[in-house]
Amino acid sequence: MKLGMTKFLTPFRVIVISYVAAMFVISLLLFLPFSTQDGISITYDEALFTAVSAVSVTGLTVVNVSETYSWAGILFLALGIQLGGIGVMTLGTFVWMVLGRKIPLSQRMLIMVDQNQISFSGLVRLMRGILLAALVIQLIGATILGTYYLNYFDTTFEAYYQGAFSAMTAFTNAGFDITGQSLVPFVDDYFVQLVHMLLIFAGAIGFPVLLELREYFSPKNPNFRFSLFTKIATSTYFIVFGIGVAMLWIFERNAFYDGMPWHSQLFFSLFNSATARSGGLSTMDMNELTLASLLLMSGLMIIGASPSSVGGGIRTTTLAVMFLTIRSFALGRDDVKVFGREIHAEDKQKAFIVLSVFAVGLFGAIMMIAAFEGTGEFVLMAILFEASSAFGTSGLSMGITPDLSFPSQVVLMILMLVGRVGLVAFLFSIRAQEKKTTYKHPTERIIIG
Amino acid sequence: MKLGMTKFLTPFRVIVISYVAAMFVISLLLFLPFSTQDGISITYDEALFTAVSAVSVTGLTVVNVSETYSWAGILFLALGIQLGGIGVMTLGTFVWMVLGRKIPLSQRMLIMVDQNQISFSGLVRLMRGILLAALVIQLIGATILGTYYLNYFDTTFEAYYQGAFSAMTAFTNAGFDITGQSLVPFVDDYFVQLVHMLLIFAGAIGFPVLLELREYFSPKNPNFRFSLFTKIATSTYFIVFGIGVAMLWIFERNAFYDGMPWHSQLFFSLFNSATARSGGLSTMDMNELTLASLLLMSGLMIIGASPSSVGGGIRTTTLAVMFLTIRSFALGRDDVKVFGREIHAEDKQKAFIVLSVFAVGLFGAIMMIAAFEGTGEFVLMAILFEASSAFGTSGLSMGITPDLSFPSQVVLMILMLVGRVGLVAFLFSIRAQEKKTTYKHPTERIIIG
Ligand SMILES: [K+]
Ligand SMILES: [K+]
After folding, report:
1. With an 8 Å Cβ cutoff, is A322 touching chain B?
2. What stretches pass through the bilayer (chains A, B) (predicted)?
3. B46-55: pLDDT as tens digits
């Protein structure tokens, strides 16, 4: 019996179950009477959607957070965001450590899986590093933003409270806001936008990258070499960011940007390209964008952030392997090379599976929402936008999410969960026990495409 | 110089160049003054679009064929359809044979590539078989439809003329019509619809399947075994067809089908699921469908027909390998097995590349059309529908193609060409010379998804 249970509870399954459990716990906390403001009540469906959105650090909402939740509710929301952002398993293990116990190997494996790490070595060190990095970055962000917000808010407390929430929501890429207007009030304050963008980058670039950067600048490691993962993830992240900035400018220069000064055009492009890749905060109403830009934003949200980060989507490395494989094919090569290394066949296989499942899944999700909503109330662009936002755990919205029926909202919740857990981890969690093949079938060629 | 030319003119490149050349020749023929009806003139852009649509057997149009082209024009259109449908190279080689020359090996390779065949054996026999099958099936179809059309048309000539064109447009999956109303007048004539569906199947199922069927029923080959290709292509073709029928019924039963007798509901579902997979003829206005059905139809058009057929899209075998790979992964297996055979690693690689290039390409194409069309005149659903129709060489339309700007129409033309040639053949045509790798780089694992 015990053995059967252990066999069932593979690391990937524990991860998924932990996220789901965290979502339900937060939903119950948010549903408590004192979690909402006086005279305001929410349905359990609304509490559940908010909880799923918080733990998956997405930021899509069916209720206006600032007008609905009390102090206690916002605290529970923040708890959900930290749980989901820094990693259910990492926090769980931290508690374990604080309680003075040793970390058993099985537990170490869980963190490895949650943070998507491949090597076992230095796992405890890695986890301490992640927690420390998350804490330090959020503290620095809160201090800078809080101090700067003294210009905006009446009391010192309000300024630092808003600064701390902003730093958290930016670094964890949660995208929630407690002002009710996201960053729209700061549309001309480029300093605030820059700080938020840097925090979004820090969260989305991937924890391994942050830790390797620290090693790189440490005097102890003169021969330090960045891993292939860090090179691919970081370059893909910023190349896609740059393409996003350029294309947004091309699509909007004669539309929304028409007549704006160059620096406004630049910052709208910079901020939108950054926030689509899991951030979710916004300086403008998405409905102002052209159809081409909305498609571009959907694409950026779908690509999402790096693995082992606070973001979602198909992830930067999946996109990179896709493009590297196409490039290899175009150049007439059999192997896929980059940065003087070869991509492992199994990683190519994973990328293919992620892409396939994503394509079928997103298409199916959008078709289901269209079917649930019936006759033509919502246009395809809006449905695609919200679904991409959910899968990329971005949280940007064209505003239709609160108006969708509950079955459609369930579809969005599933997209948020899968987007946060990551398609590979999610698939591993529902995968059958690995089978050793006892004999080979003969291979026969077929015609493709 | 001669050697350099031969080196440049790889079989795949010759195929693509031949299609493009055929498109330009037909466009010039359609642009001749006597190709249009008295008092009607078209621009060269319109002639080019019609020619690309004909040679790619798509059926999207920017002008009303029945009201625009003269007898000569329709003859040129039919020539384009036969060229594109039966295969530029096959017809070319047929001419060569008729002239009494032997087929040189290089020429045989071209047919092999055009019809996407892998083995060299029996190539001339294969080509004769394809031409004979195409001719016989179209003749049978023309006889049945022509005779039956005696009930509908005033003169015997008109009935058989319409019957012959119908049989051609259905078997080649061209989707053009010379009545100006497609099959809408036959919305209650299930016999006409059934004959058209059978012709669409025969064209889209793939030539190798037709030839293997003939061998199977031949008394000469008692031990005949269907190839893996035929098994995968045929089962995928009909499974997707069945899913399409079922889902159309689910999506429309309370919408367009509301209040219809069951047989009307059945035949609308059957015909739409069949025609989306490259046929292009229609018994109804696509704008009557719900958003969910329009998405489903777009998906069916994107999947398209089998390789080595008259259809387009990512092709049935690509979809099959995608699903088989996902299934293998879910079952915890390393190899991809089906029908007691194993899928070759290179075919999996091709499927991955087709899927990747398709995803990026269709997304890019839709974004470009959205950008070209500027501010919100066309909704995303309509753009996606026309783009899917072009790539799947289906030819179904929500009616916006004639209203698109010429740059957007160019995007559709490229999609039609690539959809017809097939992504694999197209990619091989722009691929660099295969390079033997001189040394291996070290492999390094990364984190995916
Ligand atoms: K977010
Ligand atoms: K067609």
Report:
1. yes
2. 12-35, 47-65, 71-99, 130-150, 190-211, 232-251, 289-306, 351-371, 410-430
3. 999 999 999 9
Say if B435 falls within a structural domain: no
For residue A386, give how far its alpha carbon lies from the nearest alpha carbon of chain B (Å). 14
The residue written with tokens 């053009």 in the block is B176
Report in angstroms the alpha-carbon separations of A330 from A339, A381, B346: 18, 33, 15
- CA–CA dist B344, A349 (Å, integer): 13
Residues in chain A: 449
- Residue linked to tokens 């006086």: A38
The answer to whether B419 touches B57, Cβ cutoff 8 Å, is: no
Put simply, whether B1 touches A (Cβ < 8 Å) is no
Cβ <8 Å between B437 and A356: no
What letter does residue A443 receive in the DSSP assignment?
A: E
Q: How far apart are the first and last CA of chain B?
A: 48
Q: Is B444 helix (H, G, I), strand (E, B) or coil?
A: strand
Q: B367 and A118: CB-CB below 8 Å? A: no
Test B443 with A308 for CB contact under 8 angstroms. no
Which is nearest to B242 in space by CA: B217, B266, B211, B208?
A: B266
Tell me if chain B has a CB within 8 Å of the CB of A120: no
* Residue B439 maps to a domain: no
CA A308 to ligand 1 center in whole angstroms: 15
A346 vs B contacts (CB less than 8 Å) = 445
A379 touches chain B (CB under 8 A): yes
Residue of chain B minimizing CA distance to A331: B432
In which band, very low, low, confident or very high, does the pLDDT at B37 lie, cut at 50, 70 and 90? confident
Ligand closest to Cα of B304 equals 2
The residues, any chain, with a CB within 8 Å of residue A21's CB and separated by 6 or more, are none
Instruction: Give the span between the Cα atoms of A79 and A83, in whole angstroms.
Output: 6
* B contacts of A347 (beta carbons < 8 Å): 445-446, 448
The token duo for B441 is 């780089």
Tokens 């033997």, residue? B436
* CB neighbour class for B322 (10 Å; exposed up to 12, middle 13-18, buried from 19): buried
- Asked if A342's CB is within 8 angstroms of B442's CB, the reply is yes
How far apart, in whole angstroms, are the C-alpha atoms of residue B22 and residue A62?
A: 55
Q: Which ligand is nearest to the CA of A310?
A: 1
Interface predicted TM-score (ipTM) of this complex, two decimals? 0.87
CB-CB neighbors (< 8 A) of B118 in chain A: 445, 447
Alpha carbon B317 to its chain's center: 14
- Asked if B243 reaches chain A (Cβ–Cβ under 8 Å), the answer is no
Which range among A143-147, B67-71, B443-447 has the greatest average pLDDT? A143-147
Is A7 part of the contact surface with chain B (CB cutoff 8 Å)? no
Which residues constitute the domain of residue A316? Answer: 2-430
d(Cα A241, Cα B54) in Å, to the nearest integer?
41
Residue A368 lies in a domain: yes
Report if residue B404 sits inside a domain. yes
**Which stretches of chain A drop beneath a pLDDT of 70?**
1-11, 88-126, 375-376, 432-441, 443-449
Task: List beta partners, residue A341.
Answer: A338
Q: With contacts defined as CB-CB under 8 Å, which chain B residues touch A374?
A: 255, 290
Looking at A106-110, B54-58, B280-284, B432-436, which range is the least confident one? A106-110
B3 touching A (Cβ < 8 Å):
no
What is the number of domains present in chain A? 1
Across the interface, whether the CB atoms of A295 and B380 are under 8 A apart is answered yes
User: Within 10 Å of residue B112's Cβ, how many Cβ atoms?
Assistant: 18
Q: With CB atoms and an 8 Å threshold, state whether A317 touches B432.
A: no
Question: Where do the DSSP E strands lie in A129-198?
Answer: none
**Cα(A299)–Cα(A361) distance, rounded to whole angstroms?**
15
